[in-house]
Automatic annotation (TrEMBL):
Source species taxonomy: Bacteria, Pseudomonadati, Calditrichota, Calditrichia, Calditrichales
Gene3D superfamilies: Aspartate Aminotransferase, domain 1, Type I PLP-dependent aspartate aminotransferase-like (Major domain)
Family as reported in the entry's similarity comment: Belongs to the beta-eliminating lyase family.
Annotated GO biological process: aromatic amino acid metabolic process
Annotated Pfam families: Beta_elim_lyase
Cofactor list: pyridoxal 5'-phosphate
Sequence ranges assigned to domain Aromatic amino acid beta-eliminating lyase/threonine aldolase in this UniProt record: 46-423
InterPro entries linked: ArAA_b-elim_lyase/Thr_aldolase (IPR001597), Beta-eliminating_lyase (IPR011166), PyrdxlP-dep_Trfase (IPR015424), PyrdxlP-dep_Trfase_major (IPR015421), PyrdxlP-dep_Trfase_small (IPR015422), Tryptophanase_CS (IPR018176)
Protein name (record): Aromatic amino acid beta-eliminating lyase/threonine aldolase
Organism in which the protein naturally occurs: Caldithrix abyssi DSM 13497
Domain of life: Bacteria
Residue numbers of N6-(pyridoxal phosphate)lysine PTMs: K257
Keywords noted in UniProt: Lyase, Pyridoxal phosphate
GO MF annotations, alphabetized: carbon-carbon lyase activity
Entry annotated with the keyword Lyase: yes
Length: 458
């Protein structure tokens, strides 16, 4: 079988608008060739992010009706707390309205100026939250994790020597926490092995440094461990998750990914003192400790989503749907990051469009063409999003990779949608010499990709 069939059937449908090429040309021109500026209801297939875009199950929707909206002590909070404790094993469970608030609360309470935080690769919001506290975010992923062609099965692994070197260099008193992102989003949604998790945990223990997961896509990581690591084939996803978290002291979580909900997150940790300080701050900025910026019904949906995401039939479909999209592209020679990660396929725009230099944004050229030709929204992760400026000359320093991410929302699109996406990209690949680059007409001082206006080069 080419595709694993969907392990769900469709009960409610959301019609998609089909626009004409002329309409899309007009829309993208008006949007300044910036895909963030396109109204979502003009998009046929939206692969901008897998975050907050999941379809909830009938069981989760039913749970919403059982929302207890009491200010304090909602019954949904207790269900949520019990579920998180069961899977993650941490004693204190603090709800937040999304992942970055969990990061902000944690770092506000533990980081001081000059501190250093190692991670495999920090996700953008994590890095921004570390740097906001005047600390330094250090990426210690293995070298294989930075090479789009390397087929290492656990490209999200932390390089233990790099981690040790960072602790040696700055001294353990300046390293208040070690993080590990599962799966490693910024490295292509690549998993971390249980062996590596044990090694990171041992280093953390040896130096007396707390060790936390950035757990957004923990279930997808567990599925890769079951599939690829010796000794885990006969374990359930729940058992693998419980073992994984047993090596750590806590986690931050955006439930918008593997929580299978549209909004929500949490912080969980064993340390009572940290939890108390963070809870006090939560009450200041998010709300009382039994809702943390969410409604009771949202907590119920997360509790139910966290159980559903452990279902192996669901995960097999999820991981293989992403993989098969990648394989359809790979078979036709389209350059992608390999092996395919858990939540997204990343097209290597530098090799796709070698005639467009980084200064003319090859990734954005592909993003625009994919929308104009097929109504598909993807996102550039290259010179537009990630470039730095030389402080002396003001010239752009392009990042190492020019990528286009096709992130797949959970339980939303069918395999036929994936085939449509693959065919559109393959068609563009066959006519790739025709694509032209872009120049910037307007850019903000930071995070320019969200609001930039571009102009095609004639
Ligand atoms: C993704 C996102 C969502 C996103 C966030 C910011 C800009 C563009 C897109 C969010 C993550 C993540 C990891 C590993 C923490 C967060 C923040 N990812 N860690 O990939 O991937 O969670 O959005 O709930 O605040 O599109 P949050």
């Amino acid at each position: 079988m080419q595709f694993p069939a969907e392990p769900f059937r469709i009960k409610v449908v959301e019609p998609l608008k089909i626009t004409s090429r002329e309409e899309r040309e007009k829309l993208i021109k008006e949007a300044g060739y910036n895909i963030f500026m396109i109204p979502a209801d003009s998009i046929y297939i939206d692969l901008l992010t897998d975050s907050g875009t999941s379809a909830m199950s009938d069981n989760q929707w039913a749970g919403l009706m059982l929302g207890d909206e009491s200010y304090a002590g909602s019954k949904n909070y207790y269900h949520f707390e019990e579920t998180v404790r069961h899977i993650f094993g941490f004693k204190n469970v603090i709800p937040t309205h999304q992942g970055r608030v969990a990061e902000n609360l944690l770092f506000s309470n533990i980081l001081k100026e000059g501190d250093v935080v190692p991670n495999n690769i920090h996700f953008d919001t994590t890095r921004a939250n570390v740097e906001y506290h005047k600390a330094q975010a250090i990426d210690c992923v293995i070298d294989e994790g930075m090479d789009p062609q390397n087929l290492h099965p656990f490209k999200g692994n932390m390089d233990i020597d790099k981690l040790e070197a960072a602790i040696q260099k700055y001294g353990k008193d300046r390293v208040p926490i070690i993080l590990l992102t599962v799966t490693n989003n910024s490295g292509g949604g690549q998993p971390v092995s249980m062996q590596n998790i044990r090694e990171v945990s041992a280093v953390a223990k040896k130096h007396g440094i707390p060790f936390f997961f950035d757990a957004c896509r923990f279930a997808e990581n567990c599925y890769f461990i079951k599939e690829r690591e010796d000794g885990y084939q006969d374990k359930t996803i729940l058992e693998i998750a419980q073992e994984m978290f047993s090596y750590a002291d806590g986690c931050t979580m955006s439930a918008k990914k593997d929580g299978l909900v549209n909004i929500g997150g949490f912080l969980a940790m064993n340390d009572d003192q940290w939890a108390q300080r963070i809870t006090n701050m939560l009450i200041l900025i998010e709300g009382f400790k039994t809702y943390g910026g969410l409604a009771g019904r949202d907590l119920e949906a997360i509790a139910r989503g966290l159980k559903e995401v452990l279902d192996e039939n669901y995960l097999r479909f999820r991981i293989n749907q992403t993989r098969f999209l990648g394989e359809m592209l790979d078979k036709e020679g389209v350059p992608i990051v390999k092996p395919v990660g858990g939540h997204a396929v990343y097209v290597d725009a530098r090799r796709f469009l070698p005639h467009i230099p980084p200064e003319q944004f090859p990734g954005q050229a592909l993003v625009v063409e994919l929308f104009v030709r097929a109504g598909i929204r993807s996102v550039e992760i290259g010179s537009l999003m990630m470039a730095k400026k030389d402080p002396q000359t003001g010239k752009m320093i392009p990042p190492k990779l020019e990528l286009v991410r096709l992130a797949i929302p959970r339980r939303v699109y069918t395999n036929m949608h994936m085939q449509y996406v693959a065919e559109a990209i393959i068609e563009i690949y066959r006519e790739r010499e025709k694509l032209k680059g872009f120049t910037i007409e307007y850019e903000a001082d930071f995070l320019r990709h969200f609001t930039a206006r571009l102009k095609p080069i004639a």
